[in-house]
Amino acid sequence: MQIRVALFAHLSRFQPDGEAGREPRVFELPEGTTVGAVIESLGLPDEPRVLFVNGRHAEEGTVLSEGDRLAIFPPVAGG
Amino acid sequence: MKRDLLRVNMSDLSITREPLPEGWHRYGGRALTDAIVFSEVPPDADPLGPDNVLVFSPGLLGGTSAPNGGRISVGAKSPLTGGIKESNSGGQAAHALARIGIGAVIVSGKPADPLARYCLVIEADGSASLQRVDEWAGLGNYELADEIAATRPEGDRYATIQTGPAGEAGAKAAGIAISDPKGYPNRFAGRGGLGSVMGSKGLKAIVISDKGLPYTEHADKDAFQAALKRFASALKEHAVTGQALPTYGTNVLTNILSEAGGLPTRNFSEGSFEKADDVGGERQRETILARGGHEHHGCHTGCTIQCSRYWMDKDGHYKTKGPEYETVWSFGADCGIGDLDEIADLDRACGNLGLDTIEMGATMAVYMDSGKLAFGDAKGALAALLSGAEGGEPGRVLWDGALATGKAFGVAHIPVVKSQALPAYDPRPVMGIGVTYATSPQGADHTAGYTITANILSVGGNVDPLKPEGQAELSKNLQIATAMLDSVGLCIFVAFAVLDIPDAFTAIHDMVEAHTGDPWDPDALMQLGKETLVFERLFNEKAGFTSADDRLPGFFKTVPLPPHNIVFQVTDEDLDSVFDFVPETAAQMGVS
């Protein structure tokens, strides 16, 4: 299946192509892949993060489906 | 610590200094401006008439070295909402006032001559005078700052508080500018039209010199320093206050709100903006660095979070601060404008005219929704904004805010509560903030109870933003805690650390106790927040507000917002539960 992955703030440099930038990259993954497995394959630092799948909060155990958009943020805030 | 009230009467031009009344010695900042407005302003007063007062108050920790302790509260009856207003700002003024020993400046009355302009000068020795400055009439905030600088002795250290042409014109969206550490008048007590209260009193500027003055004295210096150290470590340790905010500034929020479908776009008709990343905090940082701009500094001395930054134009010259997230949203996504330079032009124009960027961006989006101007037309927006300077149209209507503009141009969806425009989070997919918008005595104000923490950012727990459950309780607790922080004088961004690191709250308590010398306990701190809100709710009640005013505009409950296609679902009963503590707390205070 294909999903899109967007990484934000200082995480964007962990995209597999090594280029920063927040635009999503297309990932080809086996059915049943979890958010946690994507995080592990990207080698993201072990720190708190905020996860969205299709604009809804997700967990590392969330199972991804064809066409999903996964967005990962480090802890951020402002106002 | 000694704190006096400085009374400035603009009717007879008298200035007197008196001790803070005994009953108010635990009040500072927002609690003190509220107590004064509640006690001294008739609820039916004309906000631009002689019976309104304009109050400036540093928080309890003002003038100290407490990290992020230099916030100032500005209070009055609001010309925009018709209710009580506390507008909070950074900048240098709070520390300067506190170091002179002033707990609040209370400006009352009104000069007989509407063309008269005055500058209140408070020197470091505590002497104060009103100087006639008619020649400063109509000056923009940046020119005014230069004029003030020319009057000061070399080597002086001073802060300014200013109103621009919008405030002099009585505009309901006029804010009050406060100078930052470099002297730029770019920090704002923006909301609620307080710039026009200042203008109505003929008070063009206040200058406060604290040259040579030390930090305010602590009752127990060693205990204060020990608590300060713990507080500073918590701010450093937390990923938001230690990393994200200093690195990217407040605008780091644009991408995450757009991702969550909660970034109001084109006058609250969509929840994601296709150009979010073009104007977000990451792009802002890249551009600032490429232009040699100033990123990563505090808006006041003693700030350790350092989320402020300067935007430079393409030639590398200072243009404006930030722009902050709220401004990037209001003139960006909400107006369909996807270019940071265009947004910075609008921010600079508002800063110089002395207009609240939240109200004005939301207003411009309402104006665009009327069909008079296309969404995305930044040049047209700038021209419309500037047209008010000569009293022209449509500017002079726009300067009165989103409600006035929506009515004048026949717009169906006007996003206001208590006549004040909603800020940068749509209450349909972020229901907690809808509770705050609806119920805050301030009108729609995100800072009054910032539920984005648990709703979106996973700070201080998680409350699903797409469901109505738990939102009223979340908003209530945050509104009480925020009123406390605003009274202590701390920047509310410390809350991001406080919500996750329990010792940070204890450290605030310990700093307040060691500084004031009064016994406090954590419950007393929360009681301070409750008492502050009691003053606000009771004033508004007397001014005619009812539970019908604690509601969002109807379209948020009937028109679904893409991409989640959801409406606001918190019940009226839940909304009415937020201030259920008011009767009991009011009885304890002996006020009604």
Features:
heterodimer; A: 79 residues; mainly beta; Ubiquitin-like (UB roll); five-stranded mixed beta sheet; 5 strands; 10% helix; globular; B: 592 residues; alpha+beta; Aldehyde Ferredoxin Oxidoreductase,  A, domain 1; Aldehyde Ferredoxin Oxidoreductase Protein, subunit A, domain 2; six-stranded mixed beta sheet; 25 helices; 17 strands; 40% helix; 14% strand
Summarize the structure in words.
The complex is a heterodimer of chains A (about 80) and B (about 600). By secondary structure, chain A is mainly beta. Chain A is about 10% helix and about 25% strand. Chain A contains 1 helix and 5 strands, in the order E-E-H-E-E-E. Chain A has a 5-stranded mixed sheet, with no helix packed on it. In chain A, strand 3 (about 50-55) and strand 4 form a beta hairpin. With about 600 residues, chain B is α+β, with helices and mostly antiparallel strands. Among the domains of chain B are: about 5-210, Aldehyde ferredoxin oxidoreductase, N-terminal domain (Aldehyde Ferredoxin Oxidoreductase,  A, domain 1); about 265-425, Aldehyde Ferredoxin Oxidoreductase Protein, subunit A, domain 2 (Orthogonal Bundle), CATH 1.10.569. In chain B, helix 6 packs antiparallel against helix 21 (about 500-515), helix 11 packs across helix 12 (about 340-355) and helix 19 (about 470-490) crosses helix 22 (about 520-540). The longest helix of chain B is centred in the last third of the chain and has 21 residues, at about 520-540. Chain B is globular, with a radius of gyration of 22 Å. The two termini of chain B are about 30 Å apart. Chains A and B meet through strand 4 of A and helix 7, helix 8 and helix 18 of B.
